[in-house]
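Run log, item B.
One chain of 405 residues. Sequence copied directly from the ordering sheet:
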Amino acid sequence: MPLRALLLDFNSYFASVEQQLRPELRGRPLGILPVVAETTCCIAASQQAKRFGVKTGTSVADARRLCPDIVFVQARPAVYVEMHHTLMEIVDSVIAIGEVLSIDEVACDLSGSWQREEVIRELSLKVKAKLRDQAGECMTCSIGIGPNRFLAKTASNMQKPDGLTVIHQADLPDILHPLKLDDLNGIGRAMLERLNKFGINSVEALCAASREQLRRVWGGVEGERYHDRLRGIDVFRPPSKRGSIGHSHVLPPELRYGNSAYSVLSKLTQKAALRLRAEGYLASRLSLRVAWRRHDTWESTAQFTPMSDTLGFLRILAGLWAERPAYGEPTKVGVVLSGLAPAGQETLPLFDDGTRSPGLDAAFDRIRRKFGNDALYFGGAFLAAHEAPMRIAFGHIPDRVLEAD
């Protein structure tokens, strides 16, 4: 089978952007934090910090123990989004981007002469050189090339940082055997446990398993698709559907009390409602989640007639918040709108229930798009006016207008 896919993965993206823009951080172990506090954890780490074992999810205290010289920096999502768009323009000027997978990862589909290794290698090296010259020396990437995206992704992880790896059909399956099962995309902790339960304890055993065996492991057709991906087959990918829209925020120490935490939740709800309408959806569920210091995380959900009205969501939020346990110090809050359906397909209620304010929302949205999200907002978010900034979730690149700080 020919080479059909290229995957480009920027190395330690958030930390690399900081090091590029702040030369004093270059060459130093760096941890990126959602908020500067001893009780939080790293959301990213530089290549230098990773060598000490610091990674995403490592607590500040553990990171200090692993790497006493580590420097912590608060994340700047808006800066990372701006750099992302710059990098995408550079990559696309050399190799046409097929799909942006996340803020630090893109896939390119190969056809024609680009399927020849010597041609795509030359183009890959040209991309790397152009990134270095136009974006900066810290903006390195690892590139994987293979018969399908799955193997291209696997190849991109085989040589980091700044690698370039090609997997040919003839290399399979031997080239995969030295890898660990959780090195492969799609195998997390839960799937690893399932594989082990079925007696599959190595990549070699996984490659030797039949389609029927993997169907039993995965509990459905996805196991057969995984079997085919391992063999270089370009498996059809069903289009993904939006399942939810949400935001969360780690509270700084000065906001870890009731009124301030609720104000942050109000801002998060208003941001989620704005995105919901911009993407053309209605929601029928709102979930509230609060993490507490020294207590279990608490979550509550309300279900309602599909809507997109900010005031309606805020009323529901207030009702859920009133039911929260009296645990004391909240450390992280989040709100998720789910049960999504395309707007315009809902059945309208016979009588107005007072939850809808489409004219008000339309006016709010126009003003915020023109003057910024902090130009106008419902008063419940007042104490959090400068909190809950843009956040970058896996697979979602924030809109520079809709989700601006």
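Observations after the first pass:
- The radius of gyration is 23 Å.
- The first helix runs from residue 13 to 21.
Flagged for discussion on Thursday.
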